[in-house]
Amino acid sequence: MIARNKALLEWLKTATPHAIADTQTTAGYLRRIAYGQKMASAEMASGIERATSGLVTRKELRPNDWHLVWPELAERPPTIEQIVARPSPRAQSTEAAVNTSSSVSR
After folding, report:
1. Which of 37, 71, 80, 85 might form a disulfide with 32, Cβ 3.0–4.6 angstroms?
2. Shortest CA distance to 34 belongs to which of 59, 8, 65?
């Protein structure tokens, strides 16, 4: 059985009929998903994520295969360009010390 999705249940309490329609299913089916009785399809999971403004995510709705359906959501190691572009922690602390000492001497 799939785990209960409390965020989806909370959203359903205040969701407008238009917001529910944006999920591409019915309120009844959304409740079944929220209580873990049904699994959202990939298309439906995307619609639910959009309709809830990210309150309920595709990863939560499809915990066993989201990384296969949406590989772009999987965390990837940083590229060499991203690593080089980041200032090192030592450089940041040195810069902060220089800024602090220069403001003190004024």
Report:
1. 37
2. 8
